Amino acid sequence: MSRRGMNDSDDSPHVGRRQWLSALGLAGAVTLAGCSGDGGGGGGGDGNSSNGGGSSGDLGQEEVYATAAAASFSTLNPIYNSEDGAGDAIARALDLGYVFDENNEYVPLLYDMSTEDGEVWTFDVREGLEFSDPYGEVTASDFVYLIQEIHQSSWASSVNSTNWTGVEVEETGEYEFQATLETPQLLWPESFDPLLYPIPQELLEPYVEEEDTEGLRQDEELLELQFSGNLGPYVLDEWQRDGGTRYSRNDDYYLRDADDLPDAFNEAPYFEAAEVQVIGEQASRLGALETGEVDSAAIPPNQVESYRNNDEIYVNRIPQPYNEKISVNMRDNGWTTGPGNMFRHVPFRQAMAAAIDKEGLIEGVFRDFAQTHFTWQPRFSNFYPPEEDIPQFGVGDSYGSEVARGLAEDAFAESEYDYRFDGETMVDPDGNQVQLSLYHSAGQNTEQLMADFIAQELGDNLGMDVTVEAIDGTRFNNEYWQQTDYPTPETNEEGEVTNVPDELVDTVNGEEVEWTQPTATNPGPRNVTSNQEWDMSVVFGLNTYPRNPLTNNVFFEGANPLYNPVGYYPGFDAEQLFQSAREATTQEELADALIELFANLAEEQPYIMLAFPDDTVGYREGLEGPIENFSNGWDLAAWRYGE
Amino acid sequence: MATESPEQFDQVDWNDLSRSGRFDLSINSIGMLVTALPLALLGVYDWRFVGDRTATFEFVGLDRTLETVDFLFIFTLLLAFWYLVLPLYQNPRRTRYYWKEFKRNRPAVVSLGWLGIVFVGGIVGPLVMNAPQQELLIAYQPPVFTSVVDTTPATCVGEVINGRCHGTWQHPLGTTNAGRDVFTMIVYGMTISMQIAFITTTIVATVGITFGTLSAYAGGWVDEIMMRFTDIILSFPTFLMFLLILYIYGAGLGMFIVVFSLFAWGGTARYVRSKSLSISEEEFIKSSRISGASTYQVIRGHVVPNVASSIITQLTLLIPGFLLYEAQLAFLGIGDSTVPSWGQLIAAGRSDLSFAPWIVLAPGIVLFLTILAFNFLGDALLDALNPEAEAENA
Amino acid sequence: MGFGRYVTARVLWAGVVSLVITTITFLLLSAAPNPDVQQATTQAALQGGDPAAAAERARELRGLDEPLYVRYFDFIQGVYTLDWGWSSSRSQPVLEAVVGALYYTAQYSIPWTILTVILGPLVGVYSAANMYSWRDHAATGFAFFGYAIPNFFFGIILLLIFGVWLEVIPVVYNTDVAVFSVENVVQLAIPVFVLVTGSIGALMRVSRNESAEFQNSDFMKTAKAKGVSPLRAYAYHVMRPTLVPVSTTLVGQLLALFLGSSLLVEVVFGIPGLGRLTFEALLSQDTNLVLGTTLFFTFVAVVGNLIEDLVFTVLDPRISYDDR
């Protein structure tokens, strides 16, 4: 991805935060395409009736539906794509298994999913799905083959492979297969883990026999989506590596025959052709929107006002679950200013949260197009704790020098080192001012503004000296954020852990914890660190998974979850709460456990949470379909221009 | 050091050696040593004893940190003073002659004036003006005498008339998207430009002259190898290589200066070599050889001074290239964004160009004028210093 | 050394130089951590596999477990057999990517070069013919202006004026238009203008100063006295000798611009040419593509320097082959 630098105030760091998370297999970024604002998604329906719909009435069919993308695509191979933008481009020609509509309801596209207990899930594949010749009809065996031979194989390293670890899949009929989970999950579809592209079994077979990863990656049929048949609203005509993609209308689109979807789908899609244009320069993207060359484009917050005054364009504001936060390094190579890492003390993190004026940040940097962020969920989540249950650092009475200093004093009291305030400045045991660095991705205007703002607030309200440093996103990821060279436990032939080296053992809250499965993003206890030392960073934002908050176990389940680069050890029994949420048999039990979890996280501030920036997207006047909702774009195939 | 004919004991003029030997220092060199020594000590102190982020002058209570680049900059300033400015003063007659020649070229005089402003601004500016602070609420203020639609700035500092926000003298050139004062940032950018100009020039001159003279004097296969090496340096795609280094290892302003100057001396070395070859054919060199001067003495005493005056022109014309490269890197968003250079300012304002053009225009014009000034200056110096040469290197 | 031998030696030398630069690039890149290996490790860790084994496997797959010299020879062999590998950031063979980008680069480079070559000496000689008149001053001013204004800055200003405010040129470069069409001319006019302005200055200056010498030469006076038309006189007696020094300046000038500024111009105008290809390859750490584009630029630089030297030798009889 090469967005950084080219489109300064675009809000995506070099490794787009969404793409990046999905590269780790944490989320099907592709499924999140709909919320990127550039369109995406698909239609839905699970029945199969022939309701006609071929009458191709002239319902305001404009010629081309064109959108703008900021960066060119690395690949359109559905098995290996991990980018948001490319996911959008694929979605024009190839539907995914299911989507969620504006009410957060499951909408089956290729298959419906049902379960009794959350452990055994049955997939019902829609009938009448056709690949292009010579691959024939889509059946359950195509999906099962894809899961077992690609996603669960040791050689293919597909992006979705982690989603299927430990899942037993079995074909139970021509259009039906079953998946058995290790532990029950009521919200499995919401995690996007069971989301699949349809890929013909015959196409994959030669590569599976040879275990040919390179071949699979470079297969032209996959790269050009030549097998897509009637599986998408459009057919991919051309992929110009720098220019983008071009599609023509798919007259056989299977959702036209679905009777359980809004009627709008009967005629879908409403455009003769579609395009995704890659326009690197932000100013040019906006120019293209103004002249009508594209039908939608993201608009930077500081220009929303002026576009609202434009008659030809309307701007939608779409809340997002991706956060802006400060990561504070609690590992041994953090807090480079002196002894005793203060970031490890809860009151200190609270002090930092209280020292930063969230409303000021949102007004100044995001021009009010963002929401305050107090706990690890956006406000639109069903699992957002009651406002009165969570501390709201950084606004109202909980903002300011006095509050922050008070909290910092508490932290100093907890620490064995003699940190204190010397007049206005925070000083270390030697009496020198506390000096820390804060990294942001180079070339990201919004991020840089935010970093400067944070540095000023921490200086004014806590007397810390914060140096803002720009860094390349990839470099930060490789040298500061992750560690690939970490100690590994000894295993026997069955893969069971036999001996854990001392470096991988630490005492957390009085209990001994062993890192039996270290990862690059959690390579061990706090003494296992990345190559370069660092204090604070705003380089990566993370997904807070409002649809299925259980997915947040990758961040917070105990001291050694999959993803914990900052070395956060929960001070409450997070494992227990996740466990009870997993075991919940009713929505109420689930909500209770999760709400308690999020109240605790608000208290602990594992990351210093700041804001949820909204997407602000401009559309040509008259375009019907966009909604101001996180699910925006789920019914993209049915979008059209009104009369 | 290869000598063409081994020295004969009886030919050596011992008096000459003791007077103008390699340990005989001019007032310039003494001055240089005396001033550079404390700088070196400070540098060592800063490197060894002061914490990474502690201010260098904390021991005298000054909150000012010197980076490596700053040390190099001061060092080159000292060099320039002792070996460029002082000699001009020591030789008033020659200086007057140069000035007379130079004065005839009016654009060059104006250029010199402009570069003087940039130089003084770059040195004094950061001492008297506070570093530009982020003030988000006053982002996008228009420059004085101009106005923009009221929705552009977050809040308008000046008057709002008919829905248009007018600029004020508080921010004569307007403010950026972070509410930083553009004028202040341009003044801070002068420092960076001057640092780039001085340090790169010094490195290029040192390496180029050393390489060129050595090559010329060594002759034979050594000369061949050295010149072939120069060929490689000359055909090196420096800009590309720097991108490569930047991306693999990361790099700041210091790295930029080092890499670019280490690949820029090729032309200078070639030039110096041919120049010293022709000088070595001159009668006075032959006579000093006969009177027993060592190769070092010949090079140091005759060749370098003769070559130096003519390469000043060449160096002056190299500087704009460096400034341009820095700006280009910054524009691509991969420069060192913590450095307040003009290029960074242009890059920061790029996406706002359609509604806040001053953020790009102001530093862009300043950059343009500076590059222009260096070109005019180089052109004029060429005429003034070697009147026989044609102004070929426009 | 005869001329033939000199040329042979010079060409061989160019080969050596390209090899050296290629080697340096290879070493630089092999010293950097490989993102593919890191990704494989992460993947394995997340799947509960053994990251060390996964890293080993990934290294094996990419041949990274071979000793450095083996990889180096493989690499060199690949370079000269045009097997430049697969670009992971574009999902196409590197050679295809380079050739595709070259197509767009050529579209503006060729008119740019032709215009510079024709206009530079013409304006220079014209300027010399009218020396110290307002025309000369205007031409000189223009030369310095073009030389001093940063290409990318000039580009965005013109794009702002003509694209955004006046809307006479498209803001987004359109790759679909035919090469020889009005649309293509319109969208390439400004980039070509910017590049020509940047490269023409030096040529104008050199040809002006050179031709000034011939201006008052005896043969010119004779020609005028014989009643030769001024146009003819200038064409034969001034232009021709002027072209000798000019042509050497030209190669160096164009080369420098091609390697540096064309990238910026491509970025500003959104032309998917070689410069942008290189830049994006670097950003996405696509090692094969970085190597491929670096190789290409290196060859251009080396060949350009070669041509410059040869042209210089051929045109200027004063240079002997031995004194190089």
Description:
Chain C: Residues 102-308 form the ABC transmembrane type-1 domain. Chain C: It is found in: Cell membrane. Chain C: The chain crosses the membrane at residues 12-32, 110-129, 141-165, 185-204, 242-269, 289-315. The complex is a heterotrimer of chains A (643), B (394) and C (324). With 643 residues, chain A is an alpha+beta fold. In chain A, helix 9 runs antiparallel to helix 11 and helix 15 (574-583) runs antiparallel to helix 16 (587-604). Chain A is globular. In chain B, a hairpin with a 2-residue loop joins strand 2 and strand 3. In chain B, helix 6 (182-218) packs antiparallel against helix 7. Chain B has 14 helices and three strands. Chain B has a three-stranded antiparallel sheet, with no helix packed on it. Chain B is mostly helical and 394 residues long. Chain B has two domains: 66-96 and 105-132 and 181-393, MetI-like fold; 136-180, no CATH class. Chain C has 324 residues and is mainly α. Chain C has helices at 3-31, 35-46, 51-61, 68-80, 94-129, 134-148, 151-165, 182-215, 218-225, 230-259, 261-269, 274-283, 287-315, and strands at 86-87, 92-93. Chains in contact: A-B, A-C, B-C. Chains A and B meet through helix 7, helix 8, helix 10, helix 12 and strand 18 of A and loops of B.
Features:
heterotrimer; A: 643 residues; alpha+beta; 6-stranded mixed beta sheet; 4-stranded mixed beta sheet; 16 helices; 27 strands; 19% strand; disordered N terminus; B: 394 residues; mainly alpha; MetI-like fold; 3-stranded antiparallel beta sheet; elongated; disordered C terminus
